[in-house]
């Protein structure tokens, strides 16, 4: 019974971590999966958000609100700046070129942040109002994590509705499906691209601000987040919000439950899960559907 | 001996019967044509035989073996080869490389040693007349030659059954003649199943013809018997009525589009050089010419899809259109129905919504209600995904998307490609209605009958220049046929 409770709590941690990865990963899915831009500075954006939270928040809800507002602005600005920096490479820019540029930015930024904040991981304090734990039946659970789960789930729903139902969302999907034809239909594809990058950046930094108490800022966190969100995008099959969500939740569970149940296998568990998903998905989508004439 | 036996074959998409209870027997060496209106289920039948779509009912037996459990790749290895409605070639590889990839040990029925492969590639290239283009990357070939290349790739695989899905779509008369010769010169033991809307091609190549209508088998017989059949005429040549637009006085004769010094092309080489062009408001103009003459390049340069070079100057009603900014050209009032339709991965309603959202500001004549009245086939399909529409419906959707952006100039690139005669007739009437609403129309078209029936002026392109401009009424037909190779 006791062990079961431990698993249940660990699994809830997994949900929280999975939703954190979803928020970052959805940003990357938008930038890489959707706009086909290889952004290796995505983990850096998360780290920026986490440092913003560690510096500005602590104490009141207002401070967290300010940190979030600053983070979203920085993220949107960062994404838009990325679009500007990559513009000379052209829309047909090769992934290798884009990877070089964004990796260079990631290195410079990581060095800059270590110089500014020091090499030790920083503590992020949860706002007083969200401190402490509440009892979920037989076990206590931190309030902040529950709130985080709620907020991230709301972000997932809003994103899905925006992409499927809103006119800008439809323009985004049209641009993905045929950029040239979208432009010839009057869609400003340059603006769609910049907007996608800005939203993607804001998601990454926003995740950093809100996720700092779960995965705090420190050197190397940017790489961890980048790799995990790349896995989420690959497993989720870029371009679908529900797919990204499922993939993120899977990675979250593997990273938490997996570590508890089989510590020896933990380093391989994630890639094992990824392998299984990719093999299964390859089978089911192999048959190309023909069109009725 | 029967090579292909199809029994009670059917395929449902949701509530829609794309194909229902079709039974066919095709003997070895047959040249079997399949015709019928758009949405009759022709491509579905081909996809079922090739294995890219699974049947809802019925069986397919090929060479005595039930194909039910075999996927498309296994069927290809057994000797079923196919082409697609739009050419499927490896665009970055050369013509030779494309053909070489298809020559496997299955194709040779012997180990794939280098000299044997090279000999087969050489033979196929000669048979299809592609030898002189052997070293060209496939993506740089004109559209017509890409289709021939696809045909060559399939031949190289040494098929026993060829499935040809609209091989003549987008070909000019000379290329069509080359295709006819290539099909005619196929080895006798290669069985062919041919879908095409070019009935002249079907009558001249096929020994048996099947007519499908609304997913059902209508008749199978010799070409002469099928041509004479009354029910075929009723199903195939019936033209739906089109509501007429309120005639508006629009023939001002004022120039709407003025182009000077147009230079455009791909990869450095100019396809068009120093082209001059003027189109009056309310005119219906056809751009004719062989494939490779520069028709698509011209139309795409006007919409900004192909980059132009100085001293190009394109004016719409006195305002210069910004080069390299297609969305601003679109919002200034230039809409295109491109070759191959290029619909988005969206539903019909979503296509319409986007077009309305990006429409040119100003008086809107073509509202959603009017467009759906003009193209009623779309009204019942609003929630359908564009890929689930028939070829005719897809063309109507591409037209609706263009009209809803409130254009002043509507550009159409090969609008009749892949459409059945009845749909082409409907298209002709529809374009007339659009023109009488005040929209100026510029269309490239291989179907000379359609072009000359619908439009009132023609421009003939040859080698990147305008070789002939004339009103249709006083057109020198001999000169036209000389220029387009008909």
From TrEMBL, chain A:
GO biological process assignments: amino acid transport
Membrane as UniProt keyword: yes
Key word Transmembrane present: yes
Keywords: Amino-acid transport, Cell membrane, Membrane, Transmembrane, Transmembrane helix, Transport
Main location: membrane
Transmembrane segments: 15-37, 44-62, 68-87, 99-122, 142-163, 195-215, 227-250, 257-280
Molecular function in Gene Ontology: transmembrane transporter activity
Origin: domain of life: Bacteria
InterPro entries: ABC_transp_permease (IPR001851), BCAA_transport_permease (IPR052157)
Protein name as it appears in the record: Branched-chain amino acid ABC transporter permease
UniProtKB/TrEMBL annotation, chain B:
Keyword annotations: Amino-acid transport, ATP-binding, Nucleotide-binding, Transport
Domain of life: Bacteria
InterPro entries the UniProt entry points to: AAA+_ATPase, ABC_transporter-like_ATP-bd, ABC_transporter-like_CS, BCAA_Transport_ATP-bd_LivF, P-loop_NTPase
CDD domains, per database record: ABC_Mj1267_LivG_branched (cd03219), ABC_TM1139_LivF_branched (cd03224)
A Pfam entry, by short name: ABC_tran
GO MF annotation list: ATP binding; ATP hydrolysis activity; branched-chain amino acid transmembrane transporter activity
Domain ABC transporter: 4-239, 257-486
Single GO biological process annotation from the record: L-amino acid transport
Family label: Belongs to the ABC transporter superfamily.
Protein name (Swiss-Prot/TrEMBL): ABC transporter domain-containing protein
């Amino acid at each position: 019974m006791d062990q079961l409770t431990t698993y249940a709590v660990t699994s809830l941690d997994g949900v929280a971590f999975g939703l954190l990865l979803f928020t970052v990963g959805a940003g990357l899915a938008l930038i890489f999966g959707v706009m086909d831009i290889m952004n290796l500075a995505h983990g850096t954006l998360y780290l920026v958000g986490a440092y913003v939270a560690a510096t500005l928040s602590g104490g009141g809800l207002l401070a967290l609100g300010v940190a979030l507002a600053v983070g979203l602005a920085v993220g949107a600005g960062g994404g838009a700046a990325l679009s500007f920096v990559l513009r000379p490479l052209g829309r047909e820019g090769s992934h290798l070129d884009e990877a070089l540029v964004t990796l260079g930015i990631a290195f410079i930024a990581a060095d800059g942040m270590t110089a500014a904040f020091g090499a030790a991981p920083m503590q992020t304090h949860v706002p007083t109002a969200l401190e402490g734990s509440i009892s979920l039946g037989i076990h206590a659970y931190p309030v902040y994590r529950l709130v985080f789960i709620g907020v991230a789930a709301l972000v997932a729903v809003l994103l899905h509705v925006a992409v499927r139902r809103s006119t800008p969302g439809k323009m985004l999907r049209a641009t993905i499906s045929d950029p040239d034809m979208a432009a010839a239909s009057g869609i400003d594809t340059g603006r769609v691209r910049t907007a996608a990058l800005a939203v993607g950046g804001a998601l990454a930094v926003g995740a950093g601000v809100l996720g700092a108490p779960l995965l705090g800022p420190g050197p190397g966190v940017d790489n961890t987040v980048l790799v995990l969100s790349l896995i989420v995008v690959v497993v989720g099959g870029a371009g679908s919000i529900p797919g990204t969500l499922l993939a993120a939740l899977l990675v979250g569970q593997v990273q938490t439950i997996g570590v508890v149940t089989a510590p020896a296998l933990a380093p391989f568990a994630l890639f094992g899960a990824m392998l299984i998903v990719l093999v299964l998905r390859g089978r089911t989508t192999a048959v190309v559907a023909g069109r009725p004439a | 001996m029967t090579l292909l036996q199809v029994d009670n074959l059917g395929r449902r998409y949701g509530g829609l019967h794309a194909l229902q209870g079709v039974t066919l027997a095709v003997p070895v060496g047959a040249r079997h044509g399949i015709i019928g209106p758009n949405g009759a289920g022709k491509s579905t039948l081909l996809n079922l035989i090739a294995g890219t779509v699974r049947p809802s009912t019925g069986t397919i037996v090929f060479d005595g073996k039930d194909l039910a459990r075999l996927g498309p790749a296994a069927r290809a290895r057994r000797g079923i080869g196919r082409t697609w409605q739009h050419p499927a070639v490896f665009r970055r590889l050369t013509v030779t490389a494309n053909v070489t990839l298809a020559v496997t040990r299955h194709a040779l029925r012997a180990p794939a040693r280098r000299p044997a492969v090279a000999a087969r590639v050489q033979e196929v290239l000669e048979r299809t007349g592609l030898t002189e283009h052997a070293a060209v990357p496939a993506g740089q070939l004109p559209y017509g030659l890409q289709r021939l290349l696809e045909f060559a790739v399939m031949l190289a695989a040494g098929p026993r059954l060829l499935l040809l899905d609209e091989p003549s779509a987008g070909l000019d008369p000379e290329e069509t003649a080359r295709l006819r010769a290539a099909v005619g010169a196929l080895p006798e033991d290669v069985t062919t199943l041919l879908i095409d809307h070019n009935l002249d091609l079907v009558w001249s190549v096929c020994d048996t013809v099947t007519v499908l209508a609304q997913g059902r088998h209508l008749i199978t017989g010799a070409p002469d018997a099928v041509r004479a059949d009354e029910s075929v005429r009723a199903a195939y040549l019936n033209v739906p009525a089109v509501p007429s637009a309120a005639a508006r006085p629009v023939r001002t004769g004022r120039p709407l589009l003025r182009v000077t010094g147009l230079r455009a092309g791909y990869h450095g080489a100019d396809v068009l050089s120093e082209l001059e062009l003027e189109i009056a408001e309310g005119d219906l103009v056809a751009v004719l010419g062989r494939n490779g003459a520069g028709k698509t390049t011209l139309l795409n340069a006007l919409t900004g899809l192909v980059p132009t070079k100085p001293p190009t100057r394109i004016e719409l009603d006195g305002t210069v259109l910004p080069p390299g900014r297609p969305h601003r050209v679109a919002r200034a009032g230039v809409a295109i129905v491109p070759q191959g339709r290029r619909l988005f991965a969206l539903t019909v309603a979503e296509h319409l919504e986007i077009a309305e959202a990006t429409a040119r500001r100003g008086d809107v004549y073509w509202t959603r209600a009017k467009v759906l009245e003009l193209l009623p086939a779309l009204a019942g399909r609003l929630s359908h995904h564009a890929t689930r529409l028939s070829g005719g419906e897809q063309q109507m959707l591409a037209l609706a998307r263009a009209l809803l952006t409130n254009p002043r100039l509507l550009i159409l690139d090969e609008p009749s490609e892949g459409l059945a005669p009845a749909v082409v007739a409907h298209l002709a009437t529809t374009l007339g209605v659009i023109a009488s609403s005040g929209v100026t129309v510029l269309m490239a078209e291989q179907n000379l009958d359609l072009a000359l029936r619908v439009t009132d002026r023609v421009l003939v392109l040859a080698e990147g220049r305008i070789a002939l401009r004339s009103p249709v009424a006083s057109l020198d037909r001999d000169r036209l046929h000389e220029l387009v190779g008909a």
